[in-house]
Design brief:
alpha+beta; 4 helices; 5 strands
Amino acid sequence: MIQRVQSVYLFIAALAGILLFYFPINSYEFGGEKFLMQISAQQKMVEDKIIVAQHFIIPSFLLGFTTALAVFTIFKYNNRAQQIKLCFLNLVLTALFIGFTVYNVFTVIPEGVESVLGIGAFLPTVMLISIILARRAIQRDEELIKSADRIR
């Protein structure tokens, strides 16, 4: 059933993944120019125009895949064992995504420059927590079904 609590958690994870494409991770100023870091690229603001300075392909791909996997997992409600495996895979991929994102943040920003975190810096944590909660809810459902089968 789609209206289960784990579906809500997976929907929150997918929504956080979609929002990550639109909100910046952080911003900083260097040499009189303003830079914005998003998941897909580092952008430079020049006279109110955005110029892409560097693309981040691997984190963008991982984010798109984890978001699609969360949506796919919602519709596998008939097979809870497969849902648990997909949630575990999504947890691993989200952790990899967070790792690549942190690596990009620390390698792109010059040393000594103060940066301001954006909303996008916190959304991967929301994704991770939502997937963990969904996996726990699926496991609880599975245990409930097994205990009901034992009673029969």
